């Protein structure tokens, strides 16, 4: 199996170097490897396959050196992972280190873990990064949004540790550890520095939850000392909500524990136009990055060529940036923004009447 | 006759906007005797805005007398004489109390709520006519459970570097807050109650809360009931706030949702609210964000008194002085609508005293003059 793959890869190299001898030279200053980068693709359910097609088409036209390894979520529970995601799929992500995931609907029932939970636990995805910026040309009530929410993804209030003490009394545990808080704070400051952001705000409720959020803040402060060029501030969550809905331009990068992160990142998505336009990327251990579209699988419009691929396209741009293919990322990003701001080709949810394929073609034309 | 008829016609044809109720409130003999209300100025801008309330109560000759107590956020506990006073008077008006971050003193606000069992916190977020905001048609009342949930204060360090915090949800508290929410909706002619939760993740805890809400909902068939997950709720609040009417939430989500709703409707400077229990009621500025203010506001005396003024109008209604409540509310709303005297958070540059003077001038303003 491994031998076959090795032979395949060698053949591919040969063929690519024969057909496109100038591959290394014709594309910009990025160090594009001579062999394409392999990335795992989970098209997902519902509108997932259509928007995944969109991404593949745009990547083709832009000539991105990415080779997709598609994996589908099965309908049988794999006992090794206790979920519908097979061990092979997870291994593929671990090997390739990057992936793109469409919307997945977790089937209702017992005896298996939710798909998102499986991915998160097995791949150690500890930070969820969502850049939220106002799309030029698509007017919402807020037009000066430019912030990034970074949310701790493994612990906090979502540990799932609950029990009934006596009838009618339930306890739920919120866990904060030094290790997880340091990890996400490190990533937040690293991201801020790598993307030219000036300010990192830690969001907390440490005046009430003194030890838990207090520990989170302590870790953030420790990491902040290592990055003196980045301003660090702490904002209580209710002040943060108030400021976000009054004046979102006050924030730059936000780093938060799990529950607050969930709420604030969805609030910010609402400010710019909803989950259909928001990119997202999960960062895991050993440098794994799994970009995903955070909207639902929309089974009612599945297969009708009406879906909006913007979220998945913008997430794939985040994936490219993670791979340091910044020129390509900028190219696609600008193409998407130009298409939306022109307004001629917009899908139904943005108030237009184009189909998925029309929108995709418009983006390709803009490249 | 000819000269008088235009004003007569106007009085008949135009609606009265001068704050006089057309329904007579028939009091019991002795209802007009003055009530004593505990007053806690608090920290930061607290003394400034409670001073504003006192001035206006005097100007209206309202039958309310204040028993003032000094309490500050860095005290170790609420002084027992203050608690005694509130138990005696049953009603209290309070400015913000500063809660230090990260260690040491526990929150005095929480202490007061637990001590007096003020289990419901209410914030009324609505658009004020004349105040421009990004969102229209906002009229949301957020009712938040005030004693348990994530604010139980039960935390401990398991091993160094690992801290646990307990979130406690009980059927007893969930049931009574749901009961209060539906009763409020019924008494105030509200059509819909929405429960905010995260039961897809916290299945037992928020599941218990939802179960209690559903049980109470069956007793009020005339009021619509639905449920919404908290992250979707925040997203809907910033895009389509008109779909919400009354919202009932556990403790932490209520904090976030109330502040978000207050922010979209005009900010924490103009939203009234209060805390109520079976025996006592404490009125204060609705949204908790910014109720202590910052040093600059205190020095320049430019704090916004509107929120506390509207809360004191709610207090007057609670004390069964509806006419005074209406006069105060009408005057405050007219000052906001006219827009000449607005503090910095509403886009103006007036001081607190200027706003107070404007409200006093409008207290007996009559439209047809």
UniProtKB/TrEMBL annotation, chain A:
Listed GO CC annotations: mitochondrion
Pfam families, alphabetized: Iso_dh (PF00180)
Tagged with keyword DNA-binding: no
GO molecular function, one term: NAD binding
Cofactors required: Mg(2+); Mn(2+)
Keyword flag Secreted: no
InterPro entries, alphabetized: IsoCit/isopropylmalate_DH_CS (IPR019818), Isocitrate_DH_NAD (IPR004434), IsoPropMal-DH-like_dom (IPR024084)
Protein name: Isopropylmalate dehydrogenase-like domain-containing protein
Automatic annotation (TrEMBL), chain B:
Superkingdom, taxonomy of origin: Eukaryota
Gene Ontology MF annotations: isocitrate dehydrogenase (NAD+) activity; metal ion binding
Keywords annotated in UniProt: Magnesium, Manganese, Metal-binding, Mitochondrion, NAD, Oxidoreductase, Transit peptide, Tricarboxylic acid cycle
Record bears the keyword S-adenosyl-L-methionine: no
Biological process annotations from GO: isocitrate metabolic process; tricarboxylic acid cycle
Cross-referenced Pfam families: Iso_dh
One GO CC annotation: mitochondrion
InterPro entries listed in its UniProt record: Isocitrate_DH_NAD, IsoPropMal-DH-like_dom
Transmembrane annotation, as ranges: none
Ranges where the Isopropylmalate dehydrogenase-like domain occurs: 36-359
Principal subcellular localisation of the protein: mitochondrion
Protein location: Mitochondrion
Family: Belongs to the isocitrate and isopropylmalate dehydrogenases family.
Function: Performs an essential role in the oxidative function of the citric acid cycle.
Xref: NCBIfam families: mito_nad_idh
UniProt-recorded name of the protein: Isopropylmalate dehydrogenase-like domain-containing protein
Organism: Zingiber officinale (Ginger)
Lineage: Eukaryota, Viridiplantae, Streptophyta, Embryophyta, Tracheophyta
């Amino acid at each position: 199996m491994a031998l076959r793959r090795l032979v395949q890869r060698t053949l591919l190299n040969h063929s690519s170097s024969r057909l496109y001898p100038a591959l290394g030279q014709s594309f910009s200053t990025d160090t594009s490897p001579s062999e394409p980068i392999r990335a795992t693709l989970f098209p997902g359910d519902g509108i997932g396959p259509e928007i995944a097609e969109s991404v593949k088409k745009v990547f083709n036209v832009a000539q991105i050196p990415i080779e997709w390894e598609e994996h589908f979520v099965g309908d049988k529970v794999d006992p090794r992972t206790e979920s519908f995601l097979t061990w092979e799929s997870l291994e593929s992500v671990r090997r390739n280190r990057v992936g793109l995931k469409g919307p997945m609907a977790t089937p209702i029932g017992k005896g298996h873990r939710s798909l998102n939970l499986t991915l998160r636990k097995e791949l150690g995805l500890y930070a969820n990064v969502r850049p939220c910026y106002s799309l030029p040309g698509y007017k919402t009530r807020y037009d000066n949004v430019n912030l990034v929410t970074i949310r701790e993804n493994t612990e906090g209030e979502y540990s799932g540790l609950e029990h009934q003490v006596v009838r009618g009394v339930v306890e739920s545990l919120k866990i904060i550890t030094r290790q997880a808080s340091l990890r996400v704070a490190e990533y937040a400051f690293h991201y801020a520095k790598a993307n030219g952001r000036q300010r990192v705000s830690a969001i907390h409720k440490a005046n009430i939850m003194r030890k838990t959020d207090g520990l989170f803040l302590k870790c953030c402060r420790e990491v902040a000392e290592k990055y003196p060029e980045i301003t660090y501030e702490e904002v209580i969550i209710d002040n943060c909500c108030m400021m976000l809905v009054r004046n979102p331009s006050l924030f730059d990068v936000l780093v938060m524990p799990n529950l607050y992160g969930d709420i604030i990142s969805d609030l910010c998505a609402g400010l710019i136009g909803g989950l259909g336009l928001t990119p997202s990327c999960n960062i895991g251990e050993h440098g794994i990055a799994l970009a995903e579209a955070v909207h639902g699988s929309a089974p009612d419009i599945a297969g009708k060529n009406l879906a909006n691929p913007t979220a998945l396209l913008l997430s794939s741009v985040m994936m490219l940036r993670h791979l340091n293919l910044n020129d390509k990322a900028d190219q696609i990003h600008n193409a998407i923004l130009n298409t939306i701001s022109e307004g001629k080709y917009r899908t139904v949810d943005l108030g237009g009447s184009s189909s998925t394929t029309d929108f995709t073609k418009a983006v390709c034309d803009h490249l | 006759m000819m000269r008088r008829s235009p004003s007569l016609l106007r009085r008949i044809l135009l609606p009265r906007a001068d704050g006089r109720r057309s329904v007579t409130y028939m009091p019991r003999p002795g209802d007009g005797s003055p009530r004593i209300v505990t007053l806690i100025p608090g920290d930061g801008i607290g003394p400034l805005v409670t001073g504003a309330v006192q001035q206006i109560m005097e100007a209206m000759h309202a039958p309310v007398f204040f028993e003032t107590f000094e309490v500050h956020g860095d005290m170790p506990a609420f002084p027992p004489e203050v608690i005694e006073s509130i138990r005696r008077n049953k009603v209290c008006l309070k400015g913000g109390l500063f809660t230090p971050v990260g260690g040491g003193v526990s929150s005095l606000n929480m202490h007061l709520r637990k001590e007096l069992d003020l289990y419901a916190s209410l914030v009324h977020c609505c658009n004020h006519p004349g105040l421009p905001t990004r969102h229209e048609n906002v009229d949301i009342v957020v009712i938040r459970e005030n004693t348990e949930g994530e604010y139980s204060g039960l935390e401990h360090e398991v091993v160094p570097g690992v801290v646990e915090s307990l979130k406690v949800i009980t059927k007893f508290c969930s049931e009574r807050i749901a009961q209060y929410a539906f009763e409020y909706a019924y008494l105030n002619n509200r059509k819909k109650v929405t429960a905010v939760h995260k039961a897809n993740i916290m299945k037992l805890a928020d599941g218990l809360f939802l179960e209690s809400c559903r049980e109470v909902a069956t007793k009020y068939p005339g009021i619509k009931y639905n449920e919404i997950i908290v992250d979707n709720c925040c997203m809907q609040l910033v895009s389509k706030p008109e779909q919400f009417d009354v919202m009932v939430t556990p403790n932490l989500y209520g904090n976030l949702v109330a502040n978000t709703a207050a922010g979209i409707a005009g900010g924490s400077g103009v939203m009234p609210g209060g805390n109520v229990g079976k025996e006592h009621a404490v009125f204060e500025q609705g949204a908790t964000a910014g109720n202590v203010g910052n040093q600059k506001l205190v020095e320049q005396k430019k704090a916004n008194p509107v929120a506390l003024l509207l809360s004191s109008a709610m207090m007057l209604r609670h004390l069964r002085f509806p006419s005074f409540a209406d006069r105060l509310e009408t005057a405050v709303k007219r000052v906001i609508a006219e827009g000449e005297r607005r503090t910095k958070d509403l886009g103006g540059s007036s001081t607190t005293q200027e706003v107070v003077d404007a409200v006093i001038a409008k207290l007996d303003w009559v439209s047809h003059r």
